[in-house]
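#data-curation
PF: Archiving a pair of folding outputs for the training set. Convention for this channel: one message per protein, sequence first, C-alpha cells after, nothing in between. First:
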Amino acid sequence: MESNSTIASEKKKSVRALEATNFFLADVQTGLGPFLAAYLAGAGWEPGRVGVALSVGGIITVLLQAPAGAIVDHLRSKRLILVIASAVLAAGAILLSLTAAPWAVYTSQVLIGGAGPFLGPTLAAVTMGIVGVTFFDRQFGKNQSFNSAGNVFCALLVGGVSHLFGNRAIFITAALLTIPTILATLAIKSKDIDYNLSRGGALQVDGKEIPARASVIQTLLGDRILLIFLACAFLFHFANAAMLPQLGEMLSHGVRTSAAPFMSACIIVTQVVIMCSASAIGRFANVHGRKPLLLVGFGVLPIRAVLYTLTHNTESLIAIQLLDGVANAIFGVVSILVVADRTRATGRFNLVQGSLATAVGIGAALSTSFGGKLIQHYSYRISFLTLGAVAAIAFALLWFAVPETLPGPGEPDTDPSSPALTQETPA
C-alpha cells in the first residue's frame, strides 16, 4: 500500500485523477443545484411551489441513500458507478434546459435525485480504497478543496453564460460538463482501488485476513454515538438547506433577470471559503480531533440566520455567506471522518455514509419545503429565525451528547490499511 510518510508513487496519477473528478463533478452539481430555485422564481414559480419542486429530488435522494451506500459497498467497479450517475445528471440537465414546465422540472428532479445518492459515497470509497485510513483525512480534505474550486469555476461560468444566453443555458452547460467528469473518472486506475479498504477494511482472525462485514443492526442501531450524530446531521441540514435558496429568492425579488448573477456571487463566497480551508480542516481534524471543528461549524449557523434578518443590503447579505462557507467546509469534511472513525474494520463504511446522507437528505428536503411555506405565509425574517432556532438545538445536542471520535494514541490500532490488514483486491 502506502509508506508511513507518503502515498505510493504509482498511485499518484490516480489521486490526481480523483481530484480532477471532484472538480468537474462539482461543476455539474453546481449547475443543477442552487441555481434551480432562482431559475424557477424567475420563471414565475411561487416560493411554496419552488420548495415543493426542490423537495421532489430530495425525497428521491432520501429513499435511495442507504441502498446506494450498500450498493457502493458491494460493487467492485466504483468508476462505473460514477460514469452512470454522471450520465443521468446530464439527462436531467438537458430536460431542464428545454422547459420550466412542471412535468419537466419534476422529471428532472427524479433523475437528479436518483443519481445524487451514489456520488458522495463512491468518491469517498474511491479515496479510502486508494490512500487507506492513514491518509484519508488529508486526502478527503483535499478532495473537498477541489470540489469547491469546481463550484467557484462553475458559478463564474454560469454567471457569464446566463448573462449572454439566458438562464436555460445554465443547464446545457451543466450537461456539457459531464464529459470531462467522465474522462477524469476513467483516468483513475481500477487496480489502484483496494476493494476491502473502499468499504471499510478487513479483519484478522487467527492470523488470517477475512473481509469485514458487520451486520447492519450492529453497525447502525448498536452504535448510540453514531445515531445521535445522525440526528445532529439531520437538524443541521434542516436548518441550513433552505437558507441559500431563500437568500437567492430574496436577492432576486423584483429583479428576476439578475437572479443567476446574485446566486453566483453567493456560491462563490461560500465555495472560496471551502476551497481555501477544506484541506487544512482535514489535517487539523487528524491532529486535534473532530468535535472542536464540528462545534464551530454548527455554532455559526444560528448566527448566520439571525444576521440575514438584520440587513437587506445585497453586499452585506452576500458577505454573510462567509459563515455558510465555514459551516459547510467543516461539516462536509468532518462528518465523513466521524463515519470513518465509527466504521473502521466493519465493511460498512459506504452504507453508513448512505445513512448519514439519508439524514442530511431528509433534513434538506423538509427544510426547503418548510422554509418556503414560512415565507409564503409569514415572511423571510420569520423563516430565517425559525431555521436559526433549529440550528441552535443541533449545536446543543452535538455539544452535550456526541464525544470525540478520533481514536486516541493509547487505543488499539484498527487501521485496516496497515500492511497486516490489507487485501489487494482491485475494485
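PF: Second:
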Amino acid sequence: MLAVVHIHKTAGTTLAGVLKHSNGGTHCDVLAEDPQAPYFSAEDLRRLRRFYPRLRSILGHDVRAYSDLETVVPDIEWVCFLREPLTRTASHFQYDVQRGGVDLPFEEWITHDAVRDRQTRILAGPGGTAEEAIDLLGRFALVGLTERFDESLVMLGRKVGLRDLRYARKWVAPSNDIKTRLLADPETREMLVAVNREDLAVYEHVLAEIYPKQKAEYGIGLDTDVAWFRRRNQGVTQRRMYATPRYAAYVAKWRWAYHPWVERRRRHAAAIPS
C-alpha cells in the first residue's frame, strides 16, 4: 500500500488527483477520525478498510511516517514531495490570504508556531529535528520535489506501479504577487530563513543525497520518459480527469460513504470531554 505524506503547498492536491485517476475506488484521501489525534492511526486504517477492502493508496495531511501504520501494513511504501522551504512558506502565506480568508500581516503570521519548519515537523513530529526527518526519509520509497514534479512523478510511477500519471494542475494561485514580494524583499526573506532552518537542512540533504540516488536508480532513460510523459499529458484538463470511470468510482465512494462517516466520527470525538 502507498501512503503519501501530504505537506501543504507541495503540489499534494495535484498528486491526489493522479492517485484518484489511476487507482479510482482503491484510493482514499484520509482524515484521522479524532481531529485532535496526532496522526491517521493503525486503528483508523483498520476501520477504513471496511469501506476500501482493496485499498492501494492513501494520502492526507494526517498521514505520518512516524505513526503506527506499519503494524497493519508492514511493507507500506511511504512517499512525500518536498519544496524549497522559503518558496513553500511564502506560497503558504499567499494561499492563506487568497483562499483561506486570513487577514493578518505577514510579520504576525510568520510568528505562529505552526509556520516554523513545517516540512520537518510533518515528517518527524511536532518536536522533530532535521536529523530525525532525514533518518525517516531513508525509509521512503520516493521523495519527490515540487520543483521537478513531472520527473518525480515518472520515477514514482515506475517505483510503485501507477497505471496512469496524467494530471491537470489544481489550486493555481490567481496571482503570485504576494509570494514574489516576500521572496524579493531582504527583510521578509530573512524572516523566512529564520523559521525554516531545519527545513532548509532537510531540503539540502534531499537535493544532495536522496534525489540524485533516486535518479541514478531509475537509469539513463529518465529524461526520455519524462519528455514522453509531458507530450502525453498535454491538453489534459480537470474535466477530462473527472470524466473517467476510475475517478467517478473514487468520488462516489469517498463522497457518499467514507467522508460522511468520518465526519460523524469526528463530531462524536469532539463532543467527548477530554
